[in-house]
Amino acid sequence: MEHKVRYTFEEVEADPILFYGFVKHVEIIGEAVYMLTKEFRTDHPEVDWDVIEGMRHVLVHGYYQIRPKQLWNTVEYDIPALKPCLVLEKVDTKKSTNEQEKHFKSLHVAASQSASPCRL
């Protein structure tokens, strides 16, 4: 998402390759959230997991429903606000026995770094 500063909304909206590149980035975040356990989500209520998962569903299953401005606002505002709440940690897939960890980076909430709710 660091590359968003190179482009304006108008450039991303006008270029399908750029647009769907941003879609894919947001989709990957949503997919990681989708794979989290209910227990993990319950243990970290400061993040609005359902909103993030809902965005993932729209991106994966409802391409015709993607609104460019909503995607841009997610990239511009929501992800930077979410980032301090989370710490991404690479998982050694050779040592992992948890199926969830085999395919995704583990997602840890850094609750001490953010007092406000995090949402996407």
Low-confidence stretches: 100-117
Question: In this structure, how is the largest beta sheet organized?
Answer: 2 strands, antiparallel
What sort of overall outline do the alpha carbons produce when their principal axes are compared? globular
* Helix/strand/pairing category: mainly alpha
Q: What is the terminal separation in angstroms? A: 14 Å
Helical fraction equals 40-55%
The neighbouring-strand order within the major sheet is 1-2
Strand residue percentage: 5-15%
Order of helices and strands: HHHHHEHE
- Number of DSSP strand runs: 2
* Total number of distinct structural domains: 1
Question: How many helical stretches?
Answer: 6
Calculate the mean pLDDT score and round it.
75
Radius of gyration: 15 Å
Q: How would you characterize this protein structure?
A:
This protein is mainly α. It contains 6 helices and 2 strands; from the N terminus they run αααααβαβ. It has a two-stranded antiparallel ribbon. The longest helix has 19 residues. About 15% of the residues have low confidence.
